[in-house]
Every structure is written in C-alpha cells, then in structure tokens.
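Bit of a strange request maybe. I'm writing a small parser for structure token strings and I need a real example to test against, not something I typed by hand. Could someone generate the tokens for this chain?
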Amino acid sequence: MANDEGSYAPTAMATGSDRPQEGGRFGGRYLVLRLLGRGGMGSVFAVADTQLGEEVALKVLESSPGSKDSVERFRREVRLARRITHRNVARIFDIGEHAGAHYLTMELVAGESLADRIARARLSIAHACSITAEVARGLAAAHASGVVHRDLKPANVLLEHHPSGGDAPGRAVITDFGIACALSGDVRLTVDGGAWIGTPAYMSPEQLRGDALDPRSDIYALGVMLFELLTGELPFTGDGALQIALARLSRPPIDPRTRIGIDDSLAELLLSCMALDPAARPASAEQLAERLAAYAGELATTAPGALTGMGTVAVTRTPAPTYAATSVGARGVAVLPFRYRGPPAEEYLADALTDELIDLLSMTRGLRVTARGATAAFTGNVDPRAVGRELGVDAVVEGAVQRAGEDIRISARLVAVDTGFQTWSERFDGRLADVFELQDRLAKRVAEGLRLELQTDTFRSGVPPLAIELYLRARTLMRTLTQGGDGSDGAVGLLERCLELAPHFRPAIAALAVACERRWFVPANTADSSFRERAERAVERALADAPELAESHLAASRHAMQRADFGMAARELATTLSIAPTFPAAHEALGSLQCEAARPIEGLRHLQLAAVLDPACAPGLIYLVRYHEMRGDRASADAALEDVRRRCGGWEIGLVGIDARIGAWRGDRERVRRARDHALRLESAAKFVDLLFAGYLGEVAAEQLEQLIVMALHTHLSPRFRSLIAQIGAEGLALVGDFARAAAMVQRAVDDALVDLEWLEQCPALAGMRALPEYTAMRERVRARAEAIWMVE
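Reply from user aminoacidic:
Good idea to test on real output. This should exercise your parser:
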C-alpha cells in the first residue's frame, strides 16, 4: 500500500488506547494540543511539556506486529539524531514508553513541510537554492557526525515560519531520521517484509540496488529534491512510483533546462548531484551548500523578492534594502574550539557549542566568520593572537565548558588580534537537565554579547575615549524603564553629548534613535511635546547613516508601531533579526506585537527567548501572565507573575499594574488594595494610578473615572501609549458596570493604535460588552488590522 509520497513501507495503525488524544494527557507529562501528521512509522503531535512549560513535538511509534524491527529503528532514530547538533536538524530531546507505546520528543518547528509549501506554489530559483543550501548544511552536520539520512525528501524537511509572518520562510529543518544509519556500520538498504524502507522516488541508484551507501547517497536525494523545487516535477518519468524509481538505473535524469530557464552552471551542478556514479557527484554536502548559497545570493541581487537566505523576507510591500558594501563587512572573527573539562561522555558539548556559536555569528550581518574546518586544528592552549594572524581575522573567540555533576559553566572571551587585549568576557551557568536547550540558549547569549562588543569595537577607531564612555553609560541606562530621565545625564542626553564629540559614531546614532523612541512612548515629562519630532529625526538619521546596524531598524519598527503602521513595524523587525538574529530587544518587540495581533503562541516564544538573552527584557513576559489569566488558568498566571517579579524587580510599576488588573478581573479587591498600597510607595506612581485603582475597587463614580482617563489621554502624545491608557480605562469602566462609557473608551483605543485583538477577545473585564453590536464592529476592525500585519504581497 503506497503512503507518504510513494513510500512502500507498510502502514500500521496504533491501537486506540495507545494513541494520544487531542486535549488529553499522554504519559502524565504531555498535554496533547493537536495532531501534526502521520507517516509510515508513527504519528506526530504538538504537545505541551508540563514539566518544562514548553511546547514540543511528540512522535509515537505505531503498533506494527508485522515489523519486528520498527522499535529498534525508532531507537536508532534517537541515537543517531542526538549525535547531530545543528540549526538545520531537528533536535531530539527524550525517548520513553507509555502503555506499551514507544515515543520520542523533539523540537517543535512552527511551520509546514517543504512538501506542503511546494504543493501551494512553485518556488523562485533563488528561494529553491537557498532552502536546498540550508538542507545541505544540515546534511553536512549529519555526515560529520557519521550519519547518513537515507530518506531525504520534501516531506522530511520543515520550513519554520518567518518571524514577520506571511509566506516567507525561516530556517529549513531536516527531520525523521527513522531509517538513518551510522557510517561506521554496513550502510546498505534494508527491507522490511519484502518492502523498501524509504521513498523510492528520491533514492539513489546504489540505494535501490542495495549497495553500500555513503554521504553521496543523500546528495543524490537532495539533487532530486532541488529538481522538484525548481520544476514542479520529478527528474524521471514512468507509469508508477516503482517505474519512476527504477528509471534512474537505466537512463539519465531530465535536463532541468528543458523545463525552466536556469543558468548552465546551476543546471550542471544539479545534474552532477544526480549522477549515476557517486564519484561524479559533489564531494560533500558542505561544498554543495556553499555553491547553492552563492547562487541564491547572486540571484537575489537581480531578482526582486527572491529569498536571499535565512531570516530574509521573500516578498514584501516595501523590499528591505540590502547593505552589501559597508565597512563592517571587513570585520573577521574566528571561534576556536571550546575546551572541555568534565566526564568524557559529555565532551561533545564543547564541540556542539562551538558549532552553534559559529552558525549564529555567521548569520549576523557585518561579520566574516571563519569556518569550523579552518579552526578545528587549534585545540588546547594556543595563542589567540598567533591563531588570529594565521587566519587573517581581527578578533578571536575562545572559551571553555566545565561540567560538574548536573551543573554546566561556560566561559567565553573575545581577544583583539592586533593588541592581544581581552575586550569582552562573560560566564554563563546552567543545568544539564535539558542539554540541547541549554546549548542553544547559551550560544545565543554569547553570540549577542559578542555582537554588541564587536559592533562597538568596529567603529571605535578615531572616536575619543570620552565619547565611548558616554555611549556605554547611555547603553546601560537604556536597560531601565525611564532611561535615567530627560536631563543631560539620561540616556538621550549622554548620547547627544557623545555625538557632539563623535558625530559619525554609528552605534551612538542608532542608539539615540532607540532612546528617543522610548522617551516618546514613556515620557518623563508629559508636557514635553518635542520627543515625537526628535524621535522622527533620530530614526531618519539612523536609517541614513547607520543602515547596517540592527538598532537602527529596531528604532524604525518602534516608530512605525507608535504611528500604528504595524505592517511596517513587522517588516522592520524582520530586517532587524536578519541583521542580528540574537538581538533580544527585537525578539521582545516582535513577541509583544504577535501576542497582541492574533499570534500569541509565536509571540510568547520570542518573549521567552528575549528574557533568556537579556534579563532586562523579562518585563515582556507579562504577556505570558496575561495569556494564562485571560484563559482562566490562574495558577499558571500567578506562577508566571512571580517569575517575572523575581527576574526584574526594578520594573515595579508595570508589575504592580498587571497585579492590580488581575485582582480586578478576578473580583479580588484585597489584591487590588495591596497593589495600590505598593504603587503609592513608588516614585514613578502618579495620582492617575491611585484613582484608577480606586475605580477598580468601585470607590469612584464612572463619570469621575472617565474624566481622569480623558485627562490622561490629552497629556500623552504617543498614539500607542494613548491606546494603552484607553484600554486600561475601558476595563475600569466596564468593571463598574458602565458599558456605554467603556465602549466609548474602546473606540478611542481603536481610533488611535489598537491592534490588541487578544485583549478584545479574551479580557475578563470586557466579557459583559462582547454582545454589543458596536463592540463586534470594533473587534472586526481590529481583527482586520491585526491580520493585515502578517500578509505578504
């Protein structure tokens, strides 16, 4: 029986008692959210891991009495896949058995299969080359770990949704190592019950013949896949899947130039991947990845809307500019193999962290990162300056991984090759409980620290030391809510003084734009109307003078958000993350927007990552508190609030505000009173807060509360902040039962900059208003506004 794109492995069905049920629990630990798909070996579900508080993919092996080797193949998938640590290979977390059903948990990739993507529409040539290059990189990591996949096909490649939404993809991820084999053994095709294990349409000739296999067999499958991506058909014809598969043993593949207009060199590369003789194929997946990435880059510069690589929007209303020629591009950095101290069985941790860090830094625009192959020989105690000179780089990263029991400590430092000085160092601690997550998160934190330091160092030449000092002081203040106020010693004042001394210091130009945007949104003096114009000028200058810096585009996104141009905000955030994939403030901004604009699950992931990368971004996790509370999960909401409070006690007014709102939503007046008492002890609290909390408690009339809110609306100039005030005011008016005034306040928010569909649909305080016709109309208006953000034209 044929299934799963021509696979002839027998299909088996699990028993009803073994199969996870949507909405139920599996194994006591996993809350089943939805079925993702079924294949020859099992079913895959999206589940919430209640112990870790994260969503993962759960793959359950189907009961198959006729295939006694299926459980062993399942275990092999875990053993082999766990050898591979790469951003283009799905991570395996755990394996277990429940009620006789074998299962594994793995990384949940929010997106779709490549098979589903190409079923909708043909890909551009650049797009197809870029995706295939990513898959080739994942294969290279597998081959370097001694693993041949043996079942590569579009259905086993997942495309992660791009942060900006729409059809633009994020990374490509290889999954399903169910029939993979270790290169150290006799790597031949196996059969199960007389049927091929694998997918004949993508098999190499040697795999069909049952000959010994090596990495070039995967390269053949990748060539078939690229042919299909480019032309929409397979490279061989026949009356059925079997005949199509066998055709490759007797005749060459169709020349792609007869189906699509492509460059001769690309066509010849594609045909070489599908050569009958493995020796005629590209020597390695890494070599193939480099050539395909080069094609994608060349095509992207001439083809509007072509995908240029991971993190770039394929087609947008206003294409983001490219910055191919900047001084930052000459900045070279090499990551030396991290040293390891601990039990030999976990020595792979150091190698995995080194690889992950190289991958992340390679994605950061403006850095030229030396490949792992060039640095692999420099192990042990080496002179970083000598290594750096030999490799021709400006800076060298070195570090160590230390394991003691369940604790892991990672230290890293950046050494300038010209001076030998250590310009940055940091230490990170974690637990071994989830080693893959730990490795991923710590690598991101190291990469972000390096990005900031290298960015400052790149433009340091010719800048007076006092200007550098002012810039660094301002950057520290920018991590606080008020940024030190509006005086000369606040962040804005320090940056303006810095630029008086060094007018062309681009990091300060970009930072000033970010700081001015924040002051427009949260002004220290509500009577100061200058920050709107100052912010606009600062953003224009940053985009003109420092377009290669992520901070410039972050400021542009915030400016667009302030003006309720949320589509532009999302596009600028996509550009920001394409420049700096580990920039925590960008993840926080994107996550906040997604949480409001109908994508809360994706948004929470970005907010959680932002908090890991930088504790100063932890206030964004208030959206997690809100998410749980609005769905009636009070215990999770309280736990999340305590976690945010523990992480960022200095942001008290925001914490007190959400605490009071939760108390009001629940009708818990004592909680509101405690929050008010706390707020009145804070310098940042105002009379507005006192009266608002009194409204929550029913101590003031609706008319008085409305007057207070209207007065506050007139004193704040940012449409985005006015919208927030109107939201809070609407809650207070609804809680005292004046739905007419509450609806009018919601209308004010909608007219200003409201995109918070989540609040309109889920806020408990507004439950009594949702049946009103005018409320329905406002909700649909906001829904259309939210959905338009993620559309790609």
